[in-house]
Structure formats: structure tokens, C-alpha cells
Amino acid sequence: MSLTNDKTSQLINLQYELAMLVGKELQLVPMLRSFFPPALKALGCRAAHVWLRGDPDQPPAHCFSYPARETSVWREDARFVEVANQFAVAADQPRSLAIGEDRQLLLMPLDSVGFCALIRQGDPIDPIVVAAIRPIFKRLANACSASLRHEKVEQLKALAAERELRLRTVLETIGEVIFQADGEGRLTFLNPAWQTLTGMTITQALGHPLSEFMALSDRPRLERGLAEARDGESNERLELRLQTAHGHWKDVVVRLQSARATTPPASSAVPPGHPGKRWYDNAANHTYQLTGTIIDVTKLRQAERLKREFTATVSHELRTPLTSIVGAIGLLDGGAAGDLPPRARELVAVAGKNSQRLRQLIDDLLDMEKLLAGKMVFAAETIDVVELITQSAREHAPLADQREVRLLVDSDPEGGQVCADRHRLEQVLSNLLSNAIKFSPPGGAVKIGCRQSAAKVRIEVIDHGPGIDPTLQAGLFEPFTQADASDTRSQGGTGLGLAISRALIDQMDGRIGIESRPGQGATFWFELPAANTPAPD
Predict the structure, then answer these.
(1) Which pLDDT tens digit goes with each residue over 267-326?
(2) Measured between alpha carbons, how far is 226 from 127 in angstroms, rounded to an integer?
(3) pLDDT at 87 (0 to 100)
(4) Does domain 175-296 have CATH number 3.30.450.20?
(5) Distant-in-sequence, close-in-space partners of 318: CB < 8 Å, separation ≥ 6
(6) Which CATH architecture has domain 302-373?
(7) Would you say residue 536 has pLDDT above 60?
(8) Could you give the CA distance from residue 10 to residue 44 in angstroms, rounded to a whole number?
(9) Domain 2-154 homologous superfamily, CATH
């Protein structure tokens, strides 16, 4: 018994040593390596194994052995594995087991964290000693729990540091300006792309309203966009003019992302001395942050202007000689040069048809250029929609007969009236009807109709052609786009008709769209405000 008392006294002393170790070392494995050598020596054991729960909802997993070589011994012995699996289910009280003829196993619970297995040669550990070491293993359980929490915190810190480094790299290297502004539109954060774009330092710009750097004529639009984004009504995309530090003007696209009260990012995302550090230091004073980007589109807009100017110049230069060519072909076809042989008459007909296509292409190019430049003039008048679509159907009847397509008019007698430019509205209808006829199979039908609902008049052109894949529909109203863009497409055309139609309808305060599925035809529609309804602001 004196030997037992000596061991108990030693273990009590070990409690103090363990408490000191836990206070000095939070890492799990070093802490266990400090604990087990003296503990095993005092208990007369030769090995120890520890199971811990990384997650409260998961069973304990084997995570430590001392000596380290015992790990493989434990895992290879089926008896050990079976005992550990059973004890993991209800590890609430110590349990002593005989493993073989001369080996003893003591399983000690580590509260809710897991459990420990001590292996001893010869006789089992005296129950009095087991009772004496319970407080030690409760301390060990607390130490393990603290170490696991510490490891999770360190993992989260490492993950946060990695993300902050990634964020900082993006902020430093991205070509777009990333900014944040407070509720008054004052800049609170800018990345280095700002200095590249404007030629002014970040420090010079912070605290100033973003609108201060924009053209006077653009400031009201930007301020309205900021207000709408602040209220969460929309995420704006604004095309503006920005003045650089050297007085030059640049075309920019400003995208605004609405936001609410924010939690400032960790200041370590920006290194000390960085101009953006001011934002992190002061962010706690801002209850609202709006995030946005500024993209320099100066070169793109210059290229677009050059393209439009080139297109307009070429179109005008082609139009004059083409008019003479069309006139000469018309004279030949009319017999001005006498009767033509059959073969010559065929060639004249081909030339006439293709010259008309070329003239249509030039007209489309000129129309598109005027629309993009905002130079097209609209003369609004009150138009009876039923009369308009009936007239358009009559004008397209010859094309429908040529294609063996039936043309049907299905309109509400009270189809309504719209206030629009008659010539441009006829142009839109002509584009939609000619497309529907061209893409309808022989024997098919094309229906044009109109309906008035609420304050709008809707006009539809419905065909029973091949239909259009949904993935292609969004781009149909872009210039030079066709559903069949292959070199072998069966129908001609410039690919400008729908783009012009959308631009014209937009200018008349309307909307245009398509409803279609492959193999089920297509419905092209547009809506305009009814004549007795005020146009939207």
C-alpha cells in the first residue's frame, strides 16, 4: 500500500506539472508529448493512445500514440480496434481489460472530448490509483479541448490570411478601378488602378465626391444612380466622361453595386503605408458603403466612332454610283436599249435583284449609323394600328405569294392607336414580316395581329418556321447577328434588321422581344404606349 501511496503522491505532483505545461503550450501534439512520458513512467505503463473528437457530432478518431511506433501496433491488432470502437460509444467511466495473457488495457474517459488507452505489462493498475488519476485526465481533457480550439482558431486565421492576400493581390493588380463610397457619394476606398486611370494619387481623391471627377453634364445622372443604388433599387451601369489630373477626358463605364451597413474588412488586407489604409482605419465611422467599378472604355469608344464614321463614309460613297447602276438596270429592263435576248434579260434581272439587296444593305448601314449617333429624326403622329398592319400585310402579299406562304391578319377591331413615327413603324413591321415570310416553309402561314391591354398596344408577327434556340435569342437584336450565322445559311440579309428595329422601338418608348422554341416557330412582338397614355419619362 505504501507503494501505491507513493504513486498517488507522485500523480498528485504530476497534476501541478500538467497545469504548468498546459499554460505554456497550446499545440496539441507537443502538449501530449510533454504529458505522457512522466505519466506513463509513474503508472508503470509502456504505451498510450488518444482518441479525440474534432467535431462534436463525429465519433472520436485516433490522433496520438506514445511512443510513436505504437500507432501501427494498435491499428494492426483487431482486439484493440474492437475495444476502442465499443468504448467510443459510452466513454464515461474508466474500464480495465486484459488483452492477452500479460497485457492490461486501461481506458480513461476524457469527458466529451474523447478517451485515452494506457497499455501495461503484468497486473492491472490498482483501482485506488485509477481513482487518483481521474483528476489528471480531467485536466488532460480540458487541455485537449483548449488545444483543439486553438488549432481551429489558427486554421481560421491562416484561411483568413490567405483570403486577404488573395484579395490584396486582386486589388493591386486588377485593371479596373474598384471604389467604395459613403452615403454622400464621397470616396472612401480606391485601388491602385485609379492612379493609372486618372493620374492622381489615391490620397488626393479620397474624401471627395466621385461626381467631382465627372463631366458637369454627367453629374446629375451619376448622383441619381448613387441614390438608387443606395436605396437598393437597382445596380446601375452608367457611361460617363471622367477628367484626368492632366485635364484629358476619358470615356468610362461606372457600375454601381448597392450595399448596406458594412463591417470593415480586416486592416491586414492592406499593408501599412498603403494609400488605401486610410479607408480601413476610418471604415468603422461609415454606416453605409457603396461598392463600384470604373472601366476605361476610351479606346473602345474611339474605335466605335471610327467604325461608324468609316461605315457612313463608305455607305455614302457607294450610294451615289449605286443609284446610277440601279437606274441603268431599270432602263435596260424596260427596253430603253431595245429588246434584249432571253439570256441577257435573265442577267439583267439578276443584276437588278442584287443591286436592290446592296441598296438595302447601304440603307440599313446608314440607318444604324444615325441611330447610334443619335442623329435620326422622329416625326410623331397618331397612328391607327389596325390600319397600319393591314396596309403592311398588303404590301408584303407579293413576297408571301412568291414563297407560297399564307399571310393572315388577326387583329382586335379596337386595336388602338399609338403616337409614333409612321415611316419608322412601317420599317419595323417590314423587317419582322419579311423575316417571318422568308423563314416559313412553303404552305405555311404568317399571322400579324395587334391587341390593346391597359396602357399599351402590342403587335405580334407569328410564323411556323424552324424556331430559334433560346441560347441564340438574346443576341438576335445585336447588329450583324442572325439565328443561322453559317456560311451556308439559306436566307440572305445583313443581320441589321432586328438591331435597327430594336433601336427604333426604343426611340419610340417601346419594347421589342421574341418568344420561340426550336421546331415550334417564332413570335416577334413589340409594344408601344397607347396614344392616350403619356410616354414614360
Answers:
(1) 444 455 554 444 444 444 445 678 899 999 998 888 878 877 777 777 777 777 888 888
(2) 76
(3) 77
(4) yes
(5) 358, 362
(6) Orthogonal Bundle (1.10)
(7) no
(8) 12
(9) GAF domain (3.30.450.40)
Compute φ and ψ for 449, nearest 5 degrees.
Answer: -150, 170
Sequence-distant (6+) residues with CB within 8 A of 341 are none
Which tens digits make up the pLDDT trace of 384-395?
999 999 999 999
The three-state secondary structure class of 117 is strand
The hierarchical CATH code for the domain 380-529 is: 3.30.565.10
According to DSSP, residue 440 is labeled S
Instruction: Evaluate whether 2-154 and 175-296 have a shared fold.
Output: yes
187 and 210 Cβ atoms separated by less than 8 Å:
yes
Name the grid cell of 364: 440599313
| pLDDT averaged over every residue in the chain | 81
Q: Which three cell numbers stand for residue 150?
A: 486553438
**Can you give the length of the chain in residues?**
537
CB–CB of 262/231 below 8 Å? no
C-alpha cell, 143 = 487541455
Using CA atoms, how far apart are residues 406 and 384, in angstroms rounded to an integer?
24
Distance CA 128, CA 11 (A): 12
Question: Is the four-CA dihedral 194, 196, 197, 198 of positive or negative sign?
Answer: positive
Q: Coil, strand, or helix at residue 358?
A: helix
CB 415 within 8 A of CB 452: yes
pLDDT-based confidence at residue 460 (cuts at 50, 70, 90)? very high
Amino acid, res. 64? F
DSSP secondary structure, 199-210, as one string: SS-HHHHTTSBG
